[in-house]
Amino acid sequence: MEIKSFKKLKLYGFNNLTKTLSFNMYDICYAKTVEHRKGYIEYIDEQYNADRLTSILTEVANIIGANILNIAKQDYDPQGASVTILISEGKVGDKNGIAHDNNEVPGPLPEAVVAHLDKSHITVHTYPESHPDEGISTFRADIDVSTCGEISPLKALNFLIHTFDPDIATIDYRVRGFTRDVDGKKIFIDHKINSIQNYIPGETRDRYHMVDVNIYQENIFHTKMLIKEFDLDNYLFGTAKKELLPGEKKKIKQRLKKEMNEIFSGRNIARV
Length: 272
Known about the structure:
CATH class: Alpha Beta
Number of helices: 5
């Protein structure tokens, strides 16, 4: 389906289209012993504690040009953290309009993008966990960037992928509601979009297997990403590859790939 391009719109009142970017990002590793698994959880809790997540989301707000109104953050026991940031209208380009572009291009890494936002929020929740008996440990971060106004939160996607460097990511983008032009005509989307992938740099796309499921008539876009390169050393926590027997390496690699493929496909894979 062809998506129309839009000229600068003359609206009646405020642009109140709601644009929401939601995604899960996963980090996968193998922790051989109970001590290693405990160490991995502790490492993740420290690396992505509430203060660090607040710093990341604050940078997201800077990228999309938002003013921060309120921050609520919490570290959980035994693990995990959450941060919610309420944001409002940021800087305007000039007195006559908003400085932004509607091009399907990756966002900055990171440089300020001028935006108009209101009644908006950014949230993150983390979920570190370990497989009960096979040594697989995963870290999941759920992030939502929801804005009202002219800019799409997709401008923050490049920065977030770069920051978390996930093994797997599932990304959803949706435009809800409508705004009106000066003649009262309803406008259900105010920018061109064919795929979330177009907001991700080519060098990043080259690192992942990527699949789209888009419902253009509903302004719903979905992209899944699975890392291509697999070096076992990058997936071991507390153990070096050289410390493992050849048979162990093979089994661990199979377990890791099975875990990653199950998360990417959204279904369990039967044992061979």
